[in-house]
Amino acid sequence: MFSYCSDPSTLEGLTWLSCYLTTGKHMGLYISVVTVLVLLAITAPVALLFGFAGATAARSRIAPLRWLGKGYTAIVRGVPDIAFFLFFVIALDQAFEWLRHQVKCPDWDAPVRQGNDFVVCDIAKLPLSSSPQWVHETYGFFLAVLTFSIVFGAFASNVLFGAMRAVPQAQLETAEAYGMTRRQTFWRILVPQMWVYALPGLSNLWMVLIKATPLLFLLGIEDIVYWARELGGTKNPKFTDYPHGDWRMWYFLALLVFYLTFTKVSEVVLDRLMKKLTHGQATSGGEAQRKAAA
Amino acid sequence: MSCWITIQDYAFRSIGFGERLLPREDFTLCQQFTLIGSGMIWNIYFGVLALLAGFFLAVALAVGKNAKSPLVRKPAEWFIFVFRGSPLFIQFFFAYFLFLSLKQAVPIFAPFTAAWLGALVVLFFNTAAYSGEIFYGALLSIPKGDTEAADAYGMSGWSRFRRIVFPTMMRLAWPAYTNEAIFLFHATTLVYFSGFPTLKQKGDALYYASYFADKTFNPFIPYPILAGYFIILTLIIVGLMGLINKRLNRHLPQERRGKMKFRLNLIR
């Protein structure tokens, strides 16, 4: 990385550390931090979308749709989330391969589940066994994002459903009195007003989402947990590849500090956003702001 | 092989009794039910002990966070922030490697590198921090009249806390605390996926469930079984905590009694 790193014999102390922390493998660690941030950036809006769809379905007048929406939110509660993460990654992967199998090899007659094996025809494999490494990695990441979105979509749907019910009934009745249809009332009255009620729940969810990112490791992504374990030490300390002892503790300490800082920053930002949103609202928060100003 | 023999072989497999080898092929439903159920022993062990021990530390933390002196308040605030602000998963990893390093220096720490003690300590601190925040919130919302009445009766210090503040705090915090308890049991599934080694394949319910899923490539049987067990466990916790809630609220008129509302927090 730095020019003085080219001659290892001159290095000592902090200079050595500065070179060591910028080796190719450490770059892998820093890139994985970016991976986590990308995951957050994609998952948050997609989960919100899923949640919105779930909450809308749960309010629907058509019974099967309502059951679907309610079932979606209900199932994720009561069961450890990590079980969902482990379940969805395999289940989604097999579902995709099975669908492609049905489309691409219609005249395949052997059963897909043969004892302990899951067998689909070669051209239905995802990703194709001939595709390069990065395709496999991207597909894994895509599955992870989808899993996170499904699980967090259910949580978000729960929050949004509550927020939709918190919008004062009088508002909706007024809309009806003005002759708006159900659809118009929903889009013009309910949706714009629900956000202030949803924000506390959603910001809580954001914190939870941040804290769920290390679970990426369990989904087989080379994320920060993976790198921290890799770089800290080896399984067999006698033939260590690393010029230091067991440093995993320090790497995880760094991760701990990273997450604490991230949480603190989010807390501050979300607090500001909440202050903005409550401004002038007929809620107790808005009332408190009005009193403080007066 | 009948199901009864399987139960005899594997019902206590997770704590080291019974058949040494896990089933390797021709997995039956009975084997999956028995082994995953056997793993639940660990989930219950971690959950119950951490909850019981965490309760006392949580009360101390809540009172500490409410204290006037910054010498007491700051440590309590920081403790709660650190354990609530970072992922439990990372806490497990960090604690495991911390104990590993400490073991080299001080041999007393050797048992802490095993899950039964090391993970228990992390869960204990973690649940203490989360429940401490819940109790602190309840402490702030104790009706002013209650403490004023206590003052009027000439109560102060310990007797005021024990007779007035503590019971009301418990009553107000109990519904939220129930959620925390449920959630703690869910969090116990993380233990064997986060550094702590599984000696001789003695793991918890999720460990066995993922074992079956890995061997059979079929997630649609073991994970629903696991989910079923956890739903039963959740219902039991809700029932038990509901009984305590009833007792805490027994002096109140019917309509003012605290209703149990279940709003689970999700991941820690």
Fraction of residues in β-strands of chain A: under 5%
Q: How many individual helices of chain B?
A: 9
Note poorly predicted spans of chain B: 264-268
Report the sheet with the most strands of chain B, covering strand number, pairing sense and barrel closure: none
Give the tally of β-strands of chain A: 2
Q: Quick one: biggest sheet of chain A? A: 2 strands, antiparallel
Q: How far is it from the N-terminal to the C-terminal residue of chain B, by CA? A: 42 Å
Number of domains of chain B: 1
Order of helices and strands of chain A: HHHHEEHHHHHH
Q: Shape of chain A from CA axes?
A: flat
Helix/strand class of chain A: mainly alpha
Strand order of the largest sheet of chain A: 1-2
In round numbers, the mean pLDDT of chain A is 77
Radius of gyration of chain B: 22 Å
Look at the helices and sheets of chain B and give the structural class: mainly alpha
Task: Provide a count of the helices of chain A.
Answer: 10
